[in-house]
Amino acid sequence: MLEIYGSSLARLPITHFLSTSQINNTALRLQSELFVPGDDILVEGTLGNTLCTLRTGLAAAFWTKSAASVAVLMEGALFGEAAFFLPDQRRRVTVRATTTCEVMYVSKRDWEELWSPTGDQSDFQVQKYELHSNS
User: Fold this and answer.
1) pLDDT digits (tens, 9 = 90+) for 27-75
2) What residues does the Cyclic nucleotide-binding domain cover (predicted)?
């Protein structure tokens, strides 16, 4: 999966804070969904259960009541992060596909599994190796 999504993941600002092991595990959990122009990708007022990045296409973020555009999202944009990382937060905008879009996302459950202690020593060994190889 890293071969497929590696370049897309590398562009995300969040990857600078992740170990190689965490990036690999994130790539394994990524899901992809296609949207046609006019499809809602995220809807204002819903709970933030997914963290998204726009792999291809263009999308617009706007407030539903006023239809005021808040942002134009281009390839590589990370979105949905505020409602995703803050507990019990609802989405503040709707994100709608402007062109055909491929959106990669990770669920909150999968994301939390990446950070929970599992007793698996493989992550520890990878991190230990990274520390010594960077010295």
Assistant:
1) 888 899 999 999 999 999 999 999 999 999 999 999 988 878 899 999 9
2) 14-132
Q: Is 120 exposed, middle or buried (0-12, 13-18, 19+ CB in 10 A)?
A: exposed
pLDDT at 68: 80
